[in-house]
Amino acid sequence: MSDNRLSVLKTYKLFVGGKFPRSESGRVYEVTDAKGRWLANAPLASRKDARDAVVAARKAFGGWSGATAYNRGQILYRVAEMLEGRRGQFIHEVADAEGLSKSKATAQVDAAIDRWVWYAGWSDKTAQIAGSANPVAGPYFNLSSPEPTGVVALLAPQESSFLGLVSVIAPAIVTGNTAVVVAAEGAPLPALSLAEVLATSDLPGGVVNILSGRTAEIAAPLAAHQDVNAIDLSGAEPELAVELEKAAAENLKRVLRPQAVDWAADPGTGRLLAFLETKTVWHPMGV
């Protein structure tokens, strides 16, 4: 093969409603590796892009939350399958983004793929740990069952461009929520490439929407948006997190503000349950 070929550089785009638009503002910003070398230009999403992503997530919520838990699990497993086929690409992108050796980047990517499988397995079992038949003093059945919260804004971890990203997306959507994801500001490329996998994994358009750009600029309108039901502040710096909590309080959003997280550790069920609500039904016996 000739060494004189032109480099075919990749154009990274946002992921909104199952499509790949550029930012409506036309802006991009330079993404560099851990040594400051240019990697690509990523879209610099605007407040309008954030609002468009919320509209797409809300539109997708009815169908996704109404799908069977088994079907959602199948789709998450399909994501893992598709990632396995593009494993080499993600190892390269994670190594560049985080300044890791190939072996360490491989461990991160493999753990991320395994995490999709982990949460896929939980899809039809969540009700067993979050639901209950409640004892009541009367001739009634009293049953509690978990339901998704709705549209969730997810600020992806800044320090873990892929494993951390997957660890916030998968548990939010497997229970029926839809998501607007703000990729790590300094390392958005793995997230934007993940969008290409999601688009070919039977995931309905709008279930996951991925934006790149300045975290503070995108997160502010999401925290204040009346149609966003919850926000995960994993990727927010302490000062920004305080401001976003205040904005979220104006419309009673559920807020998850985790402490320092080891993304490689056993994920447990905390995030699986973080964006669920409980519906309790009373039903008379014998009817």
UniProtKB/TrEMBL annotation:
EC number of the protein: 1.2.1.3
Pfam families: Aldedh (PF00171)
Gene3D superfamilies according to UniProt: Aldehyde Dehydrogenase, Chain A, domain 1
Keyword set, alphabetical order: Oxidoreductase
Superkingdom of origin organism: Bacteria
UniProt enzyme class: oxidoreductase
Domain Aldehyde dehydrogenase: residue ranges: 24-255
GO molecular function, one term: aldehyde dehydrogenase (NAD+) activity
Protein name: Aldehyde dehydrogenase
Organism of provenance: Streptomyces malaysiensis
